[in-house]
Specification:
heterodimer, A: mainly alpha, ABC transporter involved in vitamin B12 uptake, BtuC, two-stranded antiparallel sheet, 2 strands, B: alpha/beta, Rossmann fold, 2 domains, seven-stranded mixed sheet, six-stranded parallel sheet, 12 helices, 39% helix, disordered N terminus, membrane (chain A), transmembrane (chain A), Nucleoside ABC transporter membrane protein (chain A), transmembrane helix (chain A), cell membrane (chain A)
């Protein structure tokens, strides 16, 4: 430790990190939440995230518009999600194995197609400068909220409403809890699941766009480093509730920012430990949330 | 390249491997000497060759080697430090007839290069890193490396002139000797301008962690650092993030000035074309392989980026003067008395450690003025 520790900047950095680094977690965990509510686990969202990041960047480079890039990410993620839904609807197909396959496909495809986009610079997504009132550059930076974050909040609210207040949501939850019951009720199981997995993939694609077009705002092959997989674990912690996905994502984004912020402030002792914070948190949360309260019935392992 | 290799069936590949082994059994040096005035050279990179960083520095030099008369150059990128690199090397040798291979990533050497080198004694393997030892490793392998801490010292001098807050930031991957040496040289360069300057270091934990690198750059700027540099595989994220936050940057590995033209002061760059040329010429003339070669600015192993507009005329003059001293061999970076950031004396008064000194390759301390 050093004499001039500026610890006051740490909470601000954690707050800023929670929002800017938490956004991809938010979208992927929302996507996974929706998929799992329909009774399927899609581990391929990591692939959708990477593919979304690449498509967003590539689309923005080629078209010159970050919004078209975002659209490309939604389409790419949605297609990967749809593919998962289609393959899993075949008899005796294991959704977890298909998910791992799609994860590898998405990552490999993104690396292959993304080769020409490593060097060029894409126009980034704009941000809301909510801190413009402050003369402090730290506050201004911390309150620089990317446009995708409010979109994530809206997605959260919409998903909550859709799952609890609409016919579609009720039907999806029914499919997720008991396929047999849903069949007995005459619900269109395949259509419901396909729409949920495709939407889930599209949400993960938006998460990718947030990585490549806002923060850190560049495309390269180490961009995701497993964030999509951690987001899948977050859903368990969030007990399959959209609003809890938001809290979990913010917690993780903030935890990731803790290590660098403490080191910059001069607390250099146990930086390995602080850098491991998100992973330790994953393990701890999984241990606490292990009773799987709220888990859709179709997610049980013995099927 | 890799596409065409895919079209070769496993059977043909195995046949070629067997045939190749027989040839090399028949006469270990026949392949290398048969080359004459033609040489096929293979370059293997661990990441994408346009990463604005470590791999790009190698690929830029490879592009220059490719232009030499009689040279056929092969390249393969994104080759993991696993058995994958053995396969790449074997197919470069068997299918394309490579006689000299540059596996450019540190983790390729042991055991991958050593294994393949034992199998093909007629092929030369020039590894970029620092592990070759006489008597331990085969004569057809070797290592080359550059003293890029000289470039980081010059970065420090530039940063010392440009900084207004007297605080510098360094985004580092892992606390290994080579990285610590760069942090120390950068800090000492800056403190040669103004001894009140301090450097804050953030270790991200790995060579390519874009989100963490962006967090690190942001945190350093939050803490008042106004000149940043880094030692990660691709400095792109650090350079762009720092420039967006209004800080200045010094480059590393390759020239990143295109990413932040207004914020870029100068940069420490590899100039691999020098060791590459030495090794290619030795292979073409049939001379014994240079097994352990090192060099800095003076030997042409490293170079500096052109000055950016953010560096004042006085700053540019100071960096140029320091560079001239280095080129003349009149500047020793690591000399006593030198204390580390815990107050311990690490180099006693009167002791000068030349760049070639092995003590520097085992550095485990951060110099006074570094917080990290």
């Amino acid at each position: 430790m050093s004499a001039d520790v500026d610890l006051w900047a740490v909470p601000l950095a954690v707050f800023a990190g929670a929002i800017r680094a938490g956004s991809p977690f938010l979208f992927v965990s929302l996507g996974e939440c929706l998929t799992e509510r329909g009774g399927r686990i899609n581990l391929g969202l990591e692939g959708a995230l990477v593919m979304g990041a690449m498509s967003a960047y590539g689309g923005a480079v080629l078209s010159g518009s970050p919004w078209l890039g975002l659209l490309a990410a939604i389409v790419a993620g949605g297609l990967l999600g749809l593919l998962h839904g289609l393959i899993c609807s075949l008899p005796r197909v294991n959704d977890i194995a298909v998910g791992i396959g799609l994860m590898l496909l998405g990552i490999g495809l993104a690396f292959f197609l993304g080769k020409p986009f490593i060097q060029p610079r894409a126009p980034g997504l704009p941000a809301f400068e909510l801190g413009a009132w402050s003369s402090n550059p730290l506050v201004r930076e911390a309150l620089r909220i990317n446009v995708l974050f409010p979109l994530g909040l809206a997605a959260c609210a919409l998903m909550h409403l859709a799952l609890t207040r609409t016919r579609w949501g009720l039907a999806l939850r029914c499919v997720g809890d008991s396929q047999d019951t849903a069949r007995a009720l005459g619900l269109p199981i395949l259509r419901l699941r396909l729409s949920a997995t495709a939407l889930g993939g599209a949400l993960a694609g938006i998460g990718g766009a947030s990585l490549s077009l806002f923060y850190p705002g560049s495309w390269n092959e180490g961009l995701s480093s497993g964030q999509g997989l951690m987001a899948v674990a977050l859903v368990v912690f969030a007990r399959w509730q959209p609003w809890r996905c938001l809290y979990a994502a913010l917690l993780f984004g903030g935890a990731g920012a803790l290590g660098p912020a403490l080191q910059a402030a001069g607390v250099t002792g146990a930086y390995h430990l602080f850098n491991a914070a998100p992973y330790v948190l994953t393990l701890a949360l999984m241990a606490f949330a292990s009773e799987r309260t709220g888990a859709p019935g179709e997610l049980r392992l013995s099927r | 390249m890799s596409e065409s290799r895919l079209s070769v069936s496993r059977r043909h590949f195995l046949q070629a491997v067997v045939a190749g082994s027989l040839v090399s059994l028949a006469g270990p040096w026949s392949r290398a000497l048969a080359a004459g005035d033609k040489l096929t050279v293979g370059f293997i990179y661990v990441g994408p060759r346009d990463d604005y960083g470590y791999n790009q520095a190698h690929a830029e030099a490879a592009a220059q080697i490719r232009k030499l008369p009689g040279i056929t150059a092969l390249e393969e990128e994104n080759v993991a430090e696993t058995v994958a690199v053995q396969k790449t090397m074997e197919s470069m040798i068997e299918l394309d007839g490579a006689q000299l291979i540059f596996p450019t990533s540190f983790g390729y050497f042991d055991p991958h290069v050593l294994k393949v080198a034992a199998k093909y004694p007629g092929v030369r393997f020039a590894h970029c890193g620092g592990l070759w030892r006489e008597g331990v490793h085969p004569k057809n392998t070797g290592s080359f490396f550059g003293y890029i801490d000289e470039g980081q010292y010059l970065n420090g001098v530039a940063a010392g002139h440009a900084s207004k807050t007297r605080k510098l930031g360094f985004v580092a991957a892992k606390p290994i000797p080579q990285v610590l040496r760069n942090i120390n040289a950068f800090t000492m360069g800056a403190r040669s301008v103004d001894p009140s300057i301090t450097t804050r270091v953030i270790f991200t934990g790995d060579w390519a962690m874009p989100v963490k690198e962006a967090e690190a750059a942001n945190s350093l700027v939050d803490q008042g650092a106004d000149v940043l540099t880094c030692h990660v595989d691709s400095p792109k994220v650090v350079v762009e993030t720092a420039a967006r936050r209004g800080a200045m940057v010094c480059g590393y590995h390759a020239d990143q000035s295109a990413l932040a033209p207004q914020a870029y002061l100068t940069g420490a760059q590899w100039n691999w074309v020098t060791p590459y040329t030495t090794l290619v010429q030795a292979a073409m003339s049939g001379a014994p392989m240079p097994n352990f070669i090192r060099g800095g600015l003076r030997e042409g192993y490293i170079k500096t980026s052109p000055y950016g507009p953010a560096l004042s005329a006085a700053g540019q003059a100071a960096v140029s003067a320091t560079k001239e001293k280095m080129l003349a061999g009149a500047l020793t970076i690591f000399k006593g008395p030198l204390a580390d950031n815990k107050g311990r004396t690490v180099i006693a008064a009167g002791v000068e450690l030349a760049q070639t000194d092995v003590a520097l390759e085992a550095m485990d301390w951060l110099v006074e003025g570094v917080q990290g």
